[in-house]
Write a structure and sequence with these properties.
CATH architecture of the largest domain: Alpha-Beta Complex
CATH superfamily of the largest domain: Argininosuccinate synthetase, chain A, domain 2
Structural class: alpha/beta
Strand order of the largest sheet: 3-2-1-4-5
Amino acid sequence: MIDVSKVVLAYSGGLDTSVIVRWLQETYQCEVVTFTADIGQGKEVEPARAKARALGVKEIYVEDLKEEFVRDYVFPMFRANTLYEGEYLLGTSIARPLIAKRLIEIANETNADAISHGSTGKGNDQVRFELGAYALKPDIQVIVPWREWDLTSRDALMAYCEKHDIPVDSKLGKKSPYSMDANLLHTSYEGDILEDPWAEPDEDMWLRSVSPESAPDTSTIIELTFSHGDIVAIDGKALSAAQVLDGLNRVGGENGVGRSDIVENRYVGMKARGCYDTPGGTIILRAHRAMESITLDREVMHLKDELMPRYASLIYNGYWWSPERTMLQTMIDQSQQFVNGVVRLKLYKGNITILGRKSDDSLFDENIATFEDDAGAFVPQDAAGFIKLNALRMRIAAGKGRGSA
């Protein structure tokens, strides 16, 4: 067992982390500092302060990080049009580097020896938290109770609470059967019937969006203004980063946008099924690609698309604070210099339709693209030499009897 005098714990105020507070105090005979982040999970986080105080915690951090979360993590990720394995918008993954950063900052502020978290041994979050922590403070010690204790079930945790007089919210109504994570970008659902990939999720599972069938019979049209790859206004109204995402979550959820049901490959080696409610993020992705379609050079756009899967894997696997992610981010951000303008979209029963896009930095030239007389802007005869040069290697191979047919 390592020797520590003070530990900073990522604290939700729930059953698991409340048990962890007391377990750390008793097992390591150490002082515990709690850190609770409001990143838009949709529930009041301030009660965590009273719960921590009741457990004897003296240094308690409860912080509103919604703006920082969207501005410095979500928006940079969407500049890359990021999708993990072609489907997952990384709602849980992108929150972890921010929490890891604050854990380390608080450890420095309070002269703590270690940090701790409540992630289990099967999930990705343990990797994300700890890779981030070590990248930011190489000598930090990390205590992970789920890898040490013998409390392997909810009943065992409840018995521990009873034995150690830990107050728990055991009578607040029916508990969701799903393992859920929520922030301003998404709500995720795992476990229960979702562990069978053939089983259809219950409709009442979804908390952030209505079903497409229940969405309004009339469409909603919105205009999104971009500046350097980020949305800065909705329907002409300037908004902060968190306000943009909050507004798009609302309008997207009302129109049945943003549901996904996927089986993903976890970094720890297993396949896992997750359902994700990401209305605002789904809209941002579609709108951003539409804005890039007229403002990005072809080869820049294609190179970004080639790099995106690697960038997505870095975020999913917990390498946000790695030098390679930083390098890729620099390239991505440089490409966004001219991604400015307005995109008009229609939301209707789970669908997003691009109705128009315009930009003062557009590379779309109507004089060249037209099917009518282009007044010599494009010379069709030039295409003959272009085609022959590009066909040269295939013509040589075919002449040697090495054609692909």
